[in-house]
Write a structure and sequence with these properties.
Helix content is 47%, strand content 15%. The protein is α/β, with parallel strands linked by helices. The protein has a single domain, classed as Rossmann fold (3-Layer(aba) Sandwich), CATH 3.40.50.720. Helix 4 links the parallel strand 4 and strand 5. Helix 3 packs parallel to helix 4. It is globular. One of its GO terms (molecular function) is oxidoreductase activity. This is Short-chain dehydrogenase/reductase SDR. InterPro entries: NAD(P)-bd_dom_sf (IPR036291), SDR_fam (IPR002347). Keywords: Oxidoreductase.
Length: 247
């Protein structure tokens, strides 16, 4: 199996792309920690995927916008599964706000989850991986960074993720840790359900391949990046957007 006995830490695992990643990695033989702010959802995913795959999948509640919560989750995974080989920072939120009318609260909430939360997870995971002498971190950004098609807080947070990835990829390379960013285009996830239908159709019309991405499309790229086949890839942005934008 492609990822047999590797330990994979996936945030935002309760639905959408995170759920697809948990499912695929478990099918490929990995031990998976399904992390979500909704602890009940994380445990449900873990129970279902463990039963389906026959591998060990655990569910942990974690608010990634709180450094202590991230630290506790990382510690629990190491204690229960023995190590952390791959971290996928998939958890993210959005809010439909025009720039001028964006409340301070919404700005801080989106930045704290999408960017600061990714920073916390990267930092805590890197401390473990440095001790191990190896590891792989995969951060999730968005094609909205290039197109500007999204609320200001969301675009800013996802642009920050790309900058964070490039910086820590250089710093952590000497410790055997690879860091890359997946940059999805519009993807058929629960978050998209909050977007007005006319906006959704405009997005599809702008995609040369004529459809939205599916969570499995993103999961398959994550599996490749996490594999030994990608051992010489670090500090890169890898787009999955049907030709909508070019990095």
């Amino acid at each position: 199996m492609k990822h047999k006995d590797k330990v994979i830490f996936v945030t935002g695992a309760g639905q959408g792309m995170g759920l697809a990643m948990v499912k695929l990695f478990a099918e490929q033989g990995a031990k998976v920690a399904a992390i979500d702010i909704n602890e009940a959802a994380a445990k449900k995913v873990a129970e279902q995927q463990s039963a389906e795959s026959g591998t060990e999948v655990i569910g942990i509640g974690c608010d990634i916008s709180q450094s202590s919560s991230v630290r506790d989750a990382i510690t629990e995974v190491v204690q229960r599964l023995g190590s952390i080989d791959v971290v996928i920072n998939n958890a993210g939120i959005g809010s439909i706000d025009s720039f001028i009318d964006t409340p301070d609260e919404n700005w801080h909430k989106v930045i704290n989850v999408n960017l600061t939360g990714t920073f916390y997870c990267c930092r805590e995971a890197a401390r473990v991986m440095k001790e191990q002498g190896s590891g792989c971190i995969i951060n999730i950004s968005s094609t909205a960074v290039m197109s500007g098609d999204g609320p200001s807080h969301y675009c800013a947070s996802k642009a920050g993720v790309i900058g964070l990835t490039r910086s820590i990829a250089k710093e952590l390379a000497a410790s055997g840790i690879r860091v890359n960013t997946i940059v999805p285009g519009p993807t058929n996830t629960p978050m998209m359900a909050d977007i007005p239908e006319e906006w959704t159709q405009q997005m599809i019309d702008a995609i040369p391949l004529g459809r939205m991405g599916e969570p499995a499309d993103i999961a398959k790229l994550a599996s490749f990046i996490a594999s030994d086949d990608a051992s010489f890839i670090t500090g890169q942005n890898l787009a999955v957007n049907g030709g909508m934008a070019f990095l």
